């Protein structure tokens, strides 16, 4: 167990430096120093430039692409274990490969389970993450999992917009539970976009279940990747007579032509968090910080306080 009597040290992998610095500032500590040595062929070796013996170590790194981010996190965990850290928590704001949470066709890997096994084998005692693509991924771990909920960040922002005819929407059937959870905070109706895919990242058809006429629609999702689904949903919603349409997504993967797709879409605004650093700014994208929530969660873990208390809105 983490102890209030042990020194807490926060470290960052190279893929999440900006968010890690913000978390450390909110927590009231400086980030510990990590040096990343590189060989000419691209191989790298991270090492701690200070003693962590007997410390409660929190290693912050989203495992978004490239896969070097995951490998670096695993190496930092292994180095902390070998340096006699007392308790090691992996703080993974975005848990990569979470979309591979089940065997949905023959002869495929369950990537999320594989990553869970790797993290535990590397030596973590605890994991802290946010808005897993599938909540059951928590069951892939036999160690404590702190699953933070970004709704505590998004709901106040949506309320600040003062939308008179707010309706919450899910971009697919699988996200209906998430949409209904948001809708409870506003006593709002829920509509669902029913889509059929040809293959990953390619939609064959889409229809709207529910009435959007005259409504201000807020689409809710956990990940936005190519932005194809949300863009198509936004266009269809506006064609059906909505006043406006926005999207709220925790993890801004934004690959391929996603930025161009968003800027050319019917979306008034895309609201995301900083669990993944943006490749560049966009006039339609608003970023809300998760730093304060993560810093409070780290403090509560260290002080053996409740994590769920942080999610009261």
From TrEMBL:
<dbReference type="GO" id="GO:0009156">
    <property type="term" value="P:ribonucleoside monophosphate biosynthetic process"/>
</dbReference>
<dbReference type="InterPro" id="IPR029057">
    <property type="entry name" value="PRTase-like"/>
</dbReference>
<feature type="domain" description="Ribose-phosphate pyrophosphokinase N-terminal">
    <location>
        <begin position="8"/>
        <end position="123"/>
    </location>
</feature>
<dbReference type="Pfam" id="PF14572">
    <property type="entry name" value="Pribosyl_synth"/>
</dbReference>
<dbReference type="GO" id="GO:0005524">
    <property type="term" value="F:ATP binding"/>
</dbReference>
<keyword id="KW-0808">Transferase</keyword>
<keyword id="KW-0460">Magnesium</keyword>
<keyword id="KW-0547">Nucleotide-binding</keyword>
<dbReference type="GO" id="GO:0016301">
    <property type="term" value="F:kinase activity"/>
</dbReference>
<dbReference type="GO" id="GO:0005737">
    <property type="term" value="C:cytoplasm"/>
</dbReference>
<dbReference type="GO" id="GO:0000287">
    <property type="term" value="F:magnesium ion binding"/>
</dbReference>
<protein>
    <recommendedName>
        <fullName>ribose-phosphate diphosphokinase</fullName>
        <ecNumber>2.7.6.1</ecNumber>
    </recommendedName>
</protein>
<dbReference type="InterPro" id="IPR000842">
    <property type="entry name" value="PRib_PP_synth_CS"/>
</dbReference>
<keyword id="KW-0545">Nucleotide biosynthesis</keyword>
<dbReference type="GO" id="GO:0002189">
    <property type="term" value="C:ribose phosphate diphosphokinase complex"/>
</dbReference>
<dbReference type="InterPro" id="IPR029099">
    <property type="entry name" value="Pribosyltran_N"/>
</dbReference>
<dbReference type="InterPro" id="IPR000836">
    <property type="entry name" value="PRTase_dom"/>
</dbReference>
<keyword id="KW-0067">ATP-binding</keyword>
<keyword id="KW-0479">Metal-binding</keyword>
<dbReference type="GO" id="GO:0006164">
    <property type="term" value="P:purine nucleotide biosynthetic process"/>
</dbReference>
<keyword id="KW-0418">Kinase</keyword>
<dbReference type="Pfam" id="PF13793">
    <property type="entry name" value="Pribosyltran_N"/>
</dbReference>
<dbReference type="GO" id="GO:0004749">
    <property type="term" value="F:ribose phosphate diphosphokinase activity"/>
</dbReference>
<dbReference type="GO" id="GO:0006015">
    <property type="term" value="P:5-phosphoribose 1-diphosphate biosynthetic process"/>
</dbReference>
<dbReference type="InterPro" id="IPR005946">
    <property type="entry name" value="Rib-P_diPkinase"/>
</dbReference>
<keyword id="KW-0963">Cytoplasm</keyword>
